[in-house]
Specification:
This protein is α+β, with helices and mostly antiparallel strands and 433 residues long. It has 14 helices and 18 strands. Strands 14-11-13-12-16-17-15-18 form an eight-stranded antiparallel beta sheet. It has a five-stranded antiparallel beta sheet with strand order 4-5-9-7-8. The protein binds flavin-adenine dinucleotide.
Length: 433
């Protein structure tokens, strides 16, 4: 087995594909009797070793689809293995949509919410905040349910739980009526965007930008809800996006890999290809774009108040010491929430993401950036590379102990803990890749 970037590679003893909640219960009870450990995998798009196990791996690819649509309460219940693109299509057929999404839509819904996957927009929390109820099979082999009305404390733990409480079988999500978005892409200067950040954020529904390292330039992306018709040049726009964001960028990455001294010029070249463009489409088709260039990624959330200082330190460091950075750094903004393990717990947050072409070493670069993020109370995205273990996580999350107690209650024998998860939730040392 491999994760998306191939950084994590492992061989489970067994891979199970249950197709119903009953089959998941049976599987957990059998594993418990045999004293085997279990890890669940969604689409394997996490960069960290979350899905790595040498024991039983459970894939829910055969457990997908919508269970119920409640238009009165604007809620939809889905099987946990449902892929996001499939979910968006099914919702669209009912005239519904998710209020926000990340950059891609190939993850499973349970995998995405379990790591706090997020998009951008200060009015929106990460995807887990859209979950109003869920069911999971815990380490005792019981089906447990919780919702905003029934056992809300457990919901705050379970909806972002890295598979550490058990296997989520069903999720109920808050949905909104289908809507169209216009996407406006522009080239701008980093200092201007940082200075006018509130204006940018306040002037649209979802704002993000990419900074081209070693240049003063950024690419801004502004999304606005619109009643306009879907732009007719969608096929052309798609082909252009595929070319620029994928194939042309792949060529740039390969050149940077073979000729590291060219990286500065290549970054400037990538910045120069950014122009003004606009398109209109249904929300789910605008949020996500295909990602064909493989990379490894680190992403930290920092409190909004610390963001400018983080960017100052980061741009200073990249411009001064690291001539070898090619991928633009992605900057997104997410509303505070109250999920125990959410990086945005208790604070409106800025998320800064750094990427390295998968063939190149990422460790030195990520170590330097991580030190800057950590100096500013940063919390890592659970699915993206970081080196934090129990003591640091315990310090970073005010409700970490509460989560650990619920984990202990629902999985007393630790059947959902792999060596990597033990390093997160128990006081043991582990060397991270
Ligand atoms: C190209 C790319 C783009 C990305 N873009 C974004 C982005 O825009 N925003 C963002 O925030 N993140 C992004 N990510 C990160 C990604 O969204 C997360 O890592 C997400 O968890 C991956 O979903 P998955 O289905 O592949 O889950 P996996 O990586 O397979 O699993 C993630 C975690 O969920 C657990 N899990 C899965 N299913 C269940 C279940 N049924 N019950 C209990 N636990 C379960 C697993 O055990 C594991 O701990 C991106 C990753 C890649 C590779």
């Amino acid at each position: 087995m491999k994760n998306w970037s191939s950084l994590q590679q492992w061989t489970p003893t067994k891979i199970a594909y249950p197709g119903s909640e009953e089959a998941i219960v049976r599987l957990v009870r059998d594993a418990r009797e045999q004293k085997m450990a279990v890890r669940t995998i969604g689409s394997g798009h996490s960069f960290t070793a979350l899905c790595v196990t040498e024991e039983i791996l459970v894939s829910l690819d055969k457990y997908q689809g919508v269970i119920a649509v409640d238009k009165e309460n604007m809620e939809v219940s889905v099987r946990s293995g449902t892929k996001l693109f499939h979910l968006s299509q099914l919702l669209h057929q009912h005239g519904l949509a998710l209020e926000n999404l990340g950059d891609i839509d190939v993850q499973s819904i349970a995998g995405a919410v379990s790591t706090g996957t997020h998009g951008t927009g200060t009015a929106f929390g990460n995807l887990s905040t859209q979950v109003t109820a869920l069911r999971f099979v815990d380490g005792n082999g019981n089906v447990v349910s919780c919702s905003v009305r029934e056992n809300p404390e457990l919901l705050r733990a379970a909806r972002l739980s890295l598979g550490a409480l058990g296997i989520i079988t069903e999720l109920t999500l808050r949905v909104v009526p289908s809507y169209k978005l216009s996407l406006q892409v522009e080239k701008a200067r980093l200092d201007d965007v940082l200075e006018k950040l509130e204006e940018y954020e306040g002037g649209c529904r979802n704002f993000e930008f990419y900074w081209f390292p070693n240049t003063p330039f950024v690419m801004t992306k502004e999304l606005r809800e619109t009643g306009e018709a879907v732009t007719r040049n969608s096929v052309f726009t798609y082909a252009r996006e595929m070319m620029l964001e994928n194939y042309a960028f792949l060529a740039v990455c390969e050149l940077g890999y073979r000729f590291p001294s060219w990286n500065r010029k290549l970054s400037a070249f990538a910045a120069s290809t950014t122009g003004s463009s606009r398109k209109v489409d249904w929300s789910h088709r605008v949020f996500s774009t295909p990602r064909l260039v493989r990379f490894n990624e680190m992403e930290y959330s920092v409190p909004m108040e610390a963001y400018r200082s983080v960017m100052e330190a980061l741009t200073r460091w990249v411009n001064k010491y690291n001539y070898d950075v090619l991928f633009p750094l992605e900057n997104r903004f997410v509303r505070a929430d109250d999920n125990y393990l959410s990086p945005a717990y208790g604070r409106n947050s800025a998320y800064v993401a750094a990427h390295v072409y998968h063939k190149k070493p990422h460790q030195d670069y990520f170590r330097e950036l991580e030190a800057i993020f950590r100096d500013h109370d940063g919390r890592p995205h659970w699915g993206k590379l970081h080196t934090l273990d129990y003591p640091a996580l315990h310090d970073a999350y005010p409700e970490f102990d509460r989560f650990c107690s619920l984990r202990q209650l629902h999985d007393p024998r630790g059947m959902f803990l792999s060596p990597y998860l033990r390093s997160l939730f128990q006081n043991v040392r582990q060397v991270h890749p």
